[in-house]
Amino acid sequence: MDFSLSEEHLMIRDAARDFARTELLPGVIERDNLQKFPTEQVKKMGELGFLGMMVDPKYGGGGMDTISYVLVMEELSKVDASCSVIVSVNNSLVCYGLEAYGSEDQKQKYLTKLATGEKLGAFCLSEPEAGSDATSQKTTAIDKGDHYVLNGTKNWITNGGTADFYLVIAQTDKEKKHKGINAFIVEKGWEGFEVGPKEDKLGIRGSDTHSLIFNDVKVPKENRIGEDGFGFKFAMKTLAGGRIGIAAQALGIAAGAYDLAREYSKVRKAFGTEISNHQAIAFKLADMHTSIEAARHLVMKAAWDKDQGNNYDMSGAMAKLYASQVAMDVSVEAVQVHGGNGFVKEYHVERFMRDAKITQIYEGTSEIQKIVISRGLLRD
Ligand code: COS
C-alpha cells in the first residue's frame, strides 16, 4: 500500500493551490456578499484545464485521473467553494455523463466545448417535489417522432443561469416508473426554455442557482442520451461519481477552515499567551485535523476505486457522508476558535460554515448516502 502522491499529482495539486490563492482569494468575500458569479475565474479555470479534467484529450479534456480531480477540488474549496461547485458540476456530472453515455455526435458537438471551458454545463434532475425521490419526475418529454416536447420545472440548478448546455432528466412514460425516464441535452436559447430567478442562498453564494422552466421545448431525438428509458440509470451513475467531487469539496472546506483556525490560534493572545498554548484550543485543532485526515482517506479511496474501475457507489457515498459532516463540524469549530472575529466576514471562517451546509444536501442528502451505503451492505 502506497499513500504517497506521484510527481504529477503533486504538480496539479500545487497548480490548483497557487491558482486558488492568487486568483480566487482576492475577491471571494465580495463575490459572496454580492452573489457575484466568478466569470473571470471560471474562464481562467477553463484555460488551466480544470473544467474537463478527466475527459479524453481527443475531446479537448485533460485526460487526468480522479485522484487529480479530487486534489484540485480540495484546493479550490479551501478558498472558494462557490468556484469549486462550478468545477464539480461541469466535470463530474456534465462532462462525465456525456463522455460515458453520450453518442459520438453528442460528444463532438457538446463535450468538446464543455471540456475546454468554452461552454458551461448544468445537470437538471431536482424538481420542487423530486429531489431525493428522483423517480417522481413531473417534467415530461413526450415523444413526437423525430423530437420530444419538454414541459416542466427544475429547481436548485447549479450554473442555472450561466450554463450553455443543460442535461435534463424527464419522464417519458409514467407507467414505466424509473424505466420511463430519459436524459436530454438542451441548449440555452431554445424556444420555450426560460431561466427562472436566481436563488438567494445561505452559502456558495458566488455560484448561480436557478429554477428552469420548460414550456413546450422541442428537443431533437438525437439529443436523448442513451437508449430509451436509460435516464434514471444515467442520473444514478452520474451522481455516484458526482458525490466523489462533492466529498472533495467538503474536505476542502474543512481543510480551509482548519488552516485559518490554526494560524489564528498562533497569533491571538489570551491570558498572557497565544491561544494555541491553551489545551482547550490545541485539543480542538487535534480533533479537527484527525477528522480531516479520516475524510481525506475516504475521499482518496473513492477516487482510487473509480480510477481502478471498481464499483464506487458505496465508497463515494461514504466519502460524501463523512466529509460533509466533517466540513460542518470543523467549520463550526473554526468559528469558535476565532471567537468574535469568527462571526465577522473579514475572517472568512463564517463563510466556510455557511458553505459547508450544502455539502450535506446536494447530490444526495446525507440520508440518501445512508440509503446507498446500507443497501450496498445488505445486498447479498
Ligand atoms: N448505478 C446504476 N444503477 C443504479 C444505481 C447506481 N448507482 N442506483 C440505482 N440504480 C438502478 C437500479 O439498479 C434499478 O435498476 P433495475 O430496475 O434495472 O434493477 C433502478 O436504478 C432503480 O433503483 P432503485 O429501485 O434502487 O431506485 P430508488 O428509487 O429506490 O432509488 C435512491 C434509490 C434513493 C438511492 C435514488 O433514488 C437516489 O440516489 N436518490 C437521490 C438522488 C439525488 O441524489 N438527488 C439529488 C439531486 S442533486 S443533482
Explain the overall architecture.
52% of the residues lie in helices and 15% in strands. The protein has eleven helices and nine strands. β8 (269-270) and β9 form a beta hairpin. The structure holds coenzyme a persulfide (COS).
Characterize the overall form.
globular
Q: With helices defined by DSSP (H or I, 4 residues minimum), what is the helix count?
A: 11
Q: How many beta-strand runs?
A: 9
Order of helices and strands: HHHHHHEEEEEEEHEEHHHH
Largest sheet: 4 strands, antiparallel
Helix proportion range:
40-55%
Unreliable segments of 5+ consecutive residues: none
End-to-end Cα distance, whole Å, is 28 Å
Structural class label: alpha+beta
Mean pLDDT: 97
| Strand numbers in spatial order across the main sheet | 2-3-7-6
Identify every distinct bound molecule in the structure, by name, code or SMILES: coenzyme a persulfide
Computed CA radius of gyration, to the nearest angstrom = 21 Å
Strand content is: 5-15%
In short:
The chain is of the alpha+beta class and 380 residues long. Helix content is 52%, strand content 15%.
Task: Outline the secondary-structure elements.
Elements: H1 7-24, H2 28-34, H3 39-47, H4 66-77, H5 81-101, H6 104-116, E1 121-124, E2 140-143, E3 147-158, E4 165-171, E5 181-187, E6 193-198, E7 209-220, H7 231-267, E8 269-270, E9 273-274, H8 279-308, H9 313-338, H10 349-358, H11 366-378
Parallel strand pairs: 1-4
Antiparallel strand pairs: 2-3, 3-7, 4-5, 6-7, 8-9
The chain binds coenzyme a persulfide.
